[in-house]
Specification:
Number of helices: 5
Radius of gyration: 30 Å
Oligomer: single chain
Distance between the termini: 67 Å
Order of helices and strands: HHHHH
Strand content: under 5%
Structural class: mainly alpha
Shape: flat
Largest sheet: none
Amino acid sequence: MKKFIFLATLSITLFSCKNEASTPVTTIKDTANCAKPKGKEFEMYRLSEMAALMEQMYVENSQLKERIEKGGAIGKFPEHILKIHTAKLTDPDDNDAFFKDNAAKFITAQRLIYSDTINVKQHFNEGVDACITCHKGKCGGPIARIKKLYIK
């Protein structure tokens, strides 16, 4: 037993000692005298009219979803959604028949939300379907985010 205690104490003593390497000292480079890169100045990214409209519609539909789920007042159809037909897209070539067809389906579903409150969940989800169908054909990036809008 004495040997065990001795070995345990010796092991603890040996393993508790650390041989730490010293950390290197870093210096901060003086950036005041650095030359500016030649070429184009930095430009802040700006959303296209359509991207900004879609961001606005996402926020509004998130709020609408909450009102529908809670059984609250739905309000009136937001007329600015109709700008989906005229807003400038990031890539103007995307404003084709496929886009226009899905935009029309989205508008129809949105109008029905406000006029047929009995089937409001169905119409809301049809609007979400129109968004997803369009994004599958154009730019898939926001699909996962859009799917969160579905009302179960």
